[in-house]
Design a protein that fits this description.
two-stranded antiparallel ribbon, about 50% strand, elongated, about 70 residues
């Protein structure tokens, strides 16, 4: 079910933490709520951290690591 992940400890589905929209575990988001960006480490952030840039592809916003950013 969208917005949940399989919790092997409880043998049930658990809700993704906010602001994750979808996730593979409590610690790894694969998409974020609106106005949040998916960081390279799988967390959802309001702003991309230093050393990354925003990429928006069809409404999926991610923070990608810079290689040679000024």
């Amino acid at each position: 079910k969208s917005g949940t992940y399989p919790n092997s400890t409880t043998a049930s589905c658990a809700s993704c933490p906010l602001p994750c929209l979808t996730c593979t575990s409590y610690f790894v988001c694969i998409s974020c709520q609106p106005n949040y960006n998916l960081a390279p480490n799988g967390s959802c952030l309001g702003l991309c951290p230093s050393g990354t840039y925003v990429r928006n592809v069809s409404g999926t916003v991610t923070c990608l690591l810079c290689s040679g950013c000024l």
